[in-house]
Design a protein that fits this description.
Length: about 300
């Protein structure tokens, strides 16, 4: 067990260092002055709305963990899952392979509340299912409401596209039905997991869908500052782009989002919206997440020192 904890501590430290490097590389790539100049061209109201949608998304993501620890049988207050989820995912979204990088950070926090490595693994799997259900739902909705845009990205017959759209919408609810009908445990790698209660499965579908809808709304606010683009169109392109990003494990879907925005605004000065989205949804949360992590560790060290002094 000590070997596993040492390995996770190493992974957590590596994730923090990787996040700092990614932030430095991103700023160096665009240039701090250029970033500020580009964002300065966007309407303040649009930036504020995008920031609000981004914040709502991270609050929603903390809901994944809130119900995840209940699924693991170790319920915690929302404030504790918010701390672990936000710090872990603000880093994991940027470093890549979020399940591993954010998982190490989340274990660091959850272990203090008595969760074991197996418990945290259950939380990560639960969150992963939330992502899958949400991504499937919004991809299906985007395909059904914007079939022309979907077919432009993936050239298939219209009837096949509609079938895929309905299938994407139906799959999460088929999963919910499975939790009603099947109550046995399933094996994932070396761990056995029980399917969640139907109530928790419904929350997985709802929270997963709402989260991606919020992220797409964040992007839509910034894209709309340059051109009038329907929200559903942004949702459809973003969903398909995110599927490619998740499959590739590219940090922050780097390159995929660029392609999505360029598709929406071909030939337009879309760099401002793109850079603003990365700053609002990835870079600012990353910086805040690192600061929150350092602050929480500092306060904990002071608390432990005070407790030790009192005991003496």
């Amino acid at each position: 067990m000590s070997y596993r904890r040492s390995l996770l501590s190493f992974l957590m430290a590596a994730a923090i260092c990787g996040a700092l490097y990614f932030l430095y590389h991103a700023v160096d790539r665009y240039g701090a002055g250029r970033i500020a100049g580009l964002i300065g061209t966007l309407p303040v109201a649009r930036l504020a709305a995008a920031a609000a949608f981004a914040a709502a998304s991270y609050l929603c993501l903390a809901g994944f963990d809130y119900f995840g620890v209940r699924y693991a049988g170790k319920p915690l207050p929302y404030r504790k899952t918010l701390l672990a989820s936000f710090v872990g995912l603000s880093i994991g979204h940027n470093v890549g392979v979020a399940g591993l990088s954010s998982g190490a950070v989340r274990y660091h926090f959850y272990a203090r509340s008595g969760l074991t490595l197996a418990d945290v693994a259950k939380v990560i799997v639960f969150s992963g299912v939330c992502v899958a259900c949400g991504l499937s739902t919004i991809a299906g909705v985007g395909i059904l409401l914007q079939p022309a845009q979907a077919r432009a990205l993936v050239e298939v017959d219209r009837s096949v596209m509609f079938f895929v759209g309905w299938l994407c919408v139906a799959l999460p609810w088929a999963y919910v039905l499975m939790t009603v009908l099947l109550r046995h445990r399933i094996l994932i790698w070396r761990w056995h997991f029980a399917l969640p209660e139907p109530r928790l499965a419904i929350w997985q579908v709802v929270l997963g869908s709402v989260n991606f809808a919020l992220v797409a709304a964040c992007l839509h606010q910034l894209v709309s500052s340059l051109a009038q683009v329907p929200y559903v169109k942004v949702l459809a392109v973003y969903a398909i782009g995110q599927i490619a990003g998740v499959l590739s494990h590219v940090p922050g879907a780097l390159g995929v989002l660029e392609a999505s925005v360029l598709y929406l605004l071909p030939g337009a000065p879309s760099l401002a919206a793109l850079v603003a989205f990365r700053v609002v949804y990835f870079f600012v949360p990353l910086l805040v997440g690192i600061l929150v992590f350092l602050l929480s560790e500092g306060l904990r060290a002071v608390g432990l020192s005070h407790h030790s002094g009192t005991a003496d």
